[in-house]
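Closing statement on the magnesium ion sub-project.
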Amino acid sequence: CIELHELVKIYRMGDQEVHALDGVSFSAIKGEMTAIIGASGSGKSTLMNIIGCLDRPTSGRYMLDGEDVSVFSDNQLARIRNKRIGFVFQNFNLLPRNTALENVEMPLLYSASHNARHRAMEAMERVNLRDRAHHEPNQLSGGQRQRVAIARALVTNPTIVLADEPTGNLDSRTGNEIMQLFHDLNEQGVTLIIVTHEPDIAAHCRRIIIMRDGQIIDDKDTSDA
Amino acid sequence: CIELHELVKIYRMGDQEVHALDGVSFSAIKGEMTAIIGASGSGKSTLMNIIGCLDRPTSGRYMLDGEDVSVFSDNQLARIRNKRIGFVFQNFNLLPRNTALENVEMPLLYSASHNARHRAMEAMERVNLRDRAHHEPNQLSGGQRQRVAIARALVTNPTIVLADEPTGNLDSRTGNEIMQLFHDLNEQGVTLIIVTHEPDIAAHCRRIIIMRDGQIIDDKDTSDA
Ligand SMILES: Nc1ncnc2c1ncn2[C@@H]1O[C@H](COP(=O)(O)OP(=O)(O)OP(=O)(O)O)[C@@H](O)[C@H]1O
Ligand SMILES: Nc1ncnc2c1ncn2[C@@H]1O[C@H](COP(=O)(O)OP(=O)(O)OP(=O)(O)O)[C@@H](O)[C@H]1O
Ligand SMILES: [Mg+2]
Ligand SMILES: [Mg+2]
């Protein structure tokens, strides 16, 4: 359902060029659970932002469920993001003046869902944060903010979940609870791509992609090992 | 050099109370390297903020280098923070409209240091970010922002370094480089307290403190093992 062909992303700063992605190709079929690992600055978040329709490549092609994403308008991209993709940001991107519950509810308001508040509370329960519903982000611990970001990504029941370092601020036990949650979603057919730097987390995924300097240098199905 | 006695921190939200710290006592002698681990929400960052003179406890006593911190004015606390303590924040706290180099330089400007720019560049080199000096935070990867926060904490040559999840966004190799840097500082006599959820990182520290529900439930010197 995800097909990337020779993706390039270049940032220009004055007369300098940063090649964040330097020719990335890969495909993920529906229901696959993939980990992406690689050094800091190797292009993982840049790749995730393009897959998540949050950013456009400098060149290359992205086919999502058979359609060429590059011909979509910004409005069409926003609709795809809202309907099909759940994105857990590396830096959470929570709205500072809304409560945790309001943050989780937000994606449902776009689709005029009638039971948004109830579904948001249920998502908060899935990440064990029921009793922090009315705290604002600055009244939450780092790992609690991270879990609010995860709950928000799941509340629309997306078919694709993209998680950028979802356990970076979580103790091992809470991190395992989140991975269990991701496994449950995967068993229901959700396609997952998880960026992580922790080998224990990557080990939960059958397929592991390694990035370096804007390129994919390895792409292994660990069940073949 | 750090002595905490029965620290309590209570947040009041309407008629509800959150006991973030529930009677914490411990002491660290000069030159000690301590890891603090514990579940998400157990009070680690709250404790670090009090040790770092960024926050005051609801009750309890904090003696820093023999002086009672609770009698200090806000200005005196700011001076201690600037002169003696380097703090790596869990969420980095970088100024978004300044470059990485300017962010690292900032603590030196308070003390009217004459070679601030040079020292800032040298700190950037220590975390391998020389070639990102003129990027702003939103032009950096998550792990690059984290390393800018680390460089900023070290640029004043503090005697105490408090690092809250300093490797949460770093790949294993970069994380090990940062721990090596911390070890080098420790060998020069710097006192370090590192909050981490990664057992590999905690293993670098001779002393490990475990927190749960606002209390210290274990405090071990691993060299006694
Ligand atoms: N301003 C605040 N108002 C109300 N509650 C707060 C506030 N700040 C923190 N808390 C609560 O205090 C508790 C401890 O928070 P703290 O940030 O110290 O946890 P932590 O151990 O650092 O967690 P993590 O590993 O997730 O970063 C949490 O349950 C949090 O929700
Ligand atoms: N807006 C931008 N302008 C210039 N350079 C950028 C910009 N955004 C990212 N970069 C650079 O692109 C490279 C890739 O960034 P990216 O965020 O994809 O890395 P990453 O693999 O996610 O790293 P990390 O593991 O540290 O999160 C980095 O070297 C970064 O400095
Ligand atoms: Mg990243
Ligand atoms: Mg914390």
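Chain A touches chain B through 35 residues (CB under 8 Å). With this model delivered, the sub-project is considered complete and its resources will be redirected to Aim 3.
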